[in-house]
Every structure is written in structure tokens, then in C-alpha cells.
Write the C-alpha cells for this entry.
Amino acid sequence: MGDRHMEPRHLIRILRRRWRLLVVLAVAGAALGSASAVMASDAAPPPPPVVRYDACHTLLVDTSVPDIVETWDVSNLAQLAERVTLGAIPESVAASQGLDVDEVVSRVRVRVRNDVESLTLCAVGETPGEAEGLADAFAAALIDFLEQEAAAFQQERLTAVSARIDDGQACVDEMRSRLDELLAADPGADTLVLEQRLAECRLQLTAANADLIDYQSAGVPVVPLESLDSAEAREIGEAEYEARRRAGAAGTNIEIGIGDEEPVSFGGGGGSAAPSLPDGPVARGVLGLVAGLALGLAGVVGLDRLDSRLRHKEEVEQILDLPVLAEIPPLSRRDRRAARILAFEEPRSRAAESYRALRSALDYARLVDEEAGRVSGGAQVVLVTSSGPGEGKTTTVANLAAVMAEGGRRVLAVNCDFRRPRLHRFLGGMSVPQRVNPTPVPGVFLVTQVTRSDADATPSEVVAAQRRVVERAREHYDVVLLDTAPALTTNDAAEILGVVDHVVVVVAAGRTGVEPAGRVVELLERRGRPPLGVVLVGARDVPNSAEYYYDDDDPYLEPVRRRSRRRRRRSGDGPTAGPPGRAGEHAHVAGG
């Protein structure tokens, strides 16, 4: 399904919805950037940079040494690098420099280049002499350490071969003694086995003597490390100095380079400063503007990810798996306070056309039921519900009743929300309990209370009375509309589902959450009355095409014309007047 938050169309929607946040952050970023430039210009000049020093001593593996296999093995340069920072070598350097072991380790850095078989020992210091002396001391200590190990290795070899000579000579002496004893006792005895063993002992003794001669002639194994030159200091900045000290203290001061790769660097170039911000207020203002926009964009996307409310037709259909039967445009604050029936008072408004789309969907559903034989006549009973209060359920019932009655049908609107009745505020007229009351809307009748006093009756009594009213109304009306309590607030809507033909769920764009809406749909499906569809109230994506159909002299068009002019002024789409030739009026579009 993909991530809807990253779809271009969805991004454009959330940017349009939260553009004020973007503007505020962008302006704030520009203002802070400009202010920082002014404050920086008024501040005292920065202190001069602190200079530190770095010196390196490079050791090469001397491949010209003959019989390299017999020399002291330095083929594993990475192991040698580890020895530089651990054990006897840093202890020796610390003793020679009069420093602590941790201090000298934090100042050294080892570079290994396997392609050229080199080992570079670098050290940092506060003075040139300190850095050079420390690097040279590490190089000398490494070579001295290897030479001592080579001498110890030579001594171990000589000791081992001497032991072999002693063992061989002892074996020869023993075999001779046993052979002499055997012949003395029996001159004709078989001496073949002892003679063979004596020959073997003589061979062992000869091999050991040969190895001794080879080791003595070869001498101590050569350490094939050649020092190119003494260390020479260069200047570095305080930041690089501290970075190398931290790397050494953390044990990450060994750099490995293979082939043409550059070794890892722990700081910037020698004496180079960190990148600085532009100095001018304009440049910093632009930088702050860009930063503010980036922060704002990340903020609006983050807020949208946390927002689980349904807003658009595609989201509703995708998440609830139900068709959107009608998209009702947002009502003005005045219309909401006055509880107006726009479908009756402004029959050519966008809202009226949207409710007519809902009427068409219900008419088609009725036709399908009749063709399938699921109904045998009588009124079409439609229940309108929502997940919570204030989502436009009663407004939908009142306006749907008005458009249903336009074709001469008799419509009965029944208030089934006895806890919070509001339908009479829209339809008006008399409000006599247990009576069908006429309303100012032609063809629309209203039942406000199904019992003598809904407030005093039990919920079961009210629901039973509502079911009786619906059953009787089927014979006398064409359409029966039920305005129920929110489905997740009370159980009233579920109790009356058995007498309805179709259920419509109202979703308030930007208010109804995904979870409550899903729970309503699940509840209705479990009760065997899956919703026919959804009415999306407050949808802001409904195109404004009202002016396409009606004459310029139509009195119903003037409110639409005024709202259209206000929208164009806010969006900056051009003059509020119509095209040339009809100054001050909108052009009448005829035909197609």
C-alpha cells in the first residue's frame, strides 16, 4: 500500500493545512540568523588560535636483508602497531620521557601501510621538541624491543639445540653400553636391533650438531626495520590536538591503510579552523530561513504521522473499506450556530448538491434491493449514525430530508437520540410528543419524542417505541430517516438496526479518528447491517463548480459569488471581478 505520508499529493495537503507553522518557523529562523550576525559583530574578537604540534617517524620493512625468512618476523605490521600502544614499549617511552604511561599512549598515533610495508609513529605535543622527541622515542623503543626479542629468540634456539645434542649423545652412549653388555654375555647374540638404534641416535646427534653450527653462524636474527629519518614537527590546531588525545585515550589511535586508501584521520588539517557561519546579517538570515523551513517541513510531517484523524476521501475509503457516498463541504460558523438547512435555504449551493449525491446513492441502493427481492414495498428506512457527538450526524439527517422531499416524496424524520435531541432545532415546527409534526420544509415531517416523556422512560421503552413508529411509518411515508445517538456512546443505534434498510456512517473530516470509525463499522457488520457507505462532512477537497450551472441573475448565486470572491482574495488568484465585458459580474457559462 505504501506510505501515504510520503505521497506527493498527501504532502501537498498537509503543507496547505499547516502552512502557518512553516511560515512562523521560517520567519523565526531568518530573524534568529540575522540577530546572531548582529550579536557576533558586537561581541569581542575571538582569542588567537592555540598552536600545537605533530611529528611523525616512519619505519620501513627492509626487504633487501638476505634470507628474510630466517630474520625476525615483522610481516604482521598490525601486531607491531598494537605493541606500540600496549605493554613494555609505552612503559619504556614513559620512563625515558619522564611522563605517565597513559599520557604517552594518548599522544601517540600509529599508521600502517601494508602496500608499502611501512609503520609510521606520530606523536603530538605542545612544543615542537616535545612532539619530535616522543615520536623518535617510540621508534627507538620499538626497534630496541624487537632486537631484545630477537636475542631472546636466538638464545631459546641455542638452548633447545643444546638439549637435543645432550639427548643424542646420551642415546649413543646408552646404546653402546647395552651392545657391549650383550656381546660380553653372549658373543654369538643377535645385535641387529641395538645396532639400528645406535645408528638412529648417531643421526640425531649429527643433525643437532649441524643445527647448532647453523644457528651460531647465523647469529641473532636481524630486525629488518629501517628508519627513514628523524621526526619533524608541523603545526596543528587545538581541535586536532584534543581529538588525537581523546582517540589515544580511547584506544582508537591505530590507523590501517591498504593499497591506495588513505588512513583514517582523527582531526582536520594542520592549523585549519572549523567551518564558520557567514558573517553578514542577510546571509545568516537566508541560512536561518532555510533551516526554519527544513525544521518546519520535518515538523509538519511528524505531526501528520501522529495525527490519526480521517481527513480525505481516499483515506476513508482505503482505511474503512467503504465508499464515500457524499463529500459535504465545511459550513461557516454562522451556519453552524444558526442550525440552517442549506439544502432547503440555498438549494443551489455546493452543500445542497453534495446531499443530492447522497440521495442518489440511497435511491440506487433501494433500486438494487427491489430488483434483488429484498424489499416488498413501503418506506425506505435509513439510519444515520456516527462514532461520537458533534460529527454532523443531525445536520446530515435534516439536509437529507430536505433533498429527499424535493421530488414530492413524503419524508419522516425521527429523532432517535432521546438523550440529546437536536433534530427539532434544524427542522423547526411544532414539537408535540407521540405525534407527527409538520415542518417548514414541504414534504418533511418530524417525530421528536416517541414516548410522552423520553427523559423519564427507560432506554428499552424508548427503543421499543421507536421500532413501533418505524413499522407504522413504512405504510404512510416514502422515506424514514432515523437520527440516532452516536454508536460508540450508547447502544441505542444497535438496538434499532433490525427495522432499518440501510445504514450511513457520518465521518467528520479532521475530527473523527481512525480507530473510532473502524469500531463503528465493525459493530454494524457484527449486527448484520454493514454500512452502505460514508458521508464525509467538512471535506475541503470538494471542487467549487456551483457557478458553472446558474445564471448571473439568479438570486441564489449571490452568496456563492461572495464566498468565491473572498477565497480569491485570500489565495491571490487575481481580481474579484469577472472577465472583460461583464465588469463586476461573473460570466455566464452556457452549454457544455
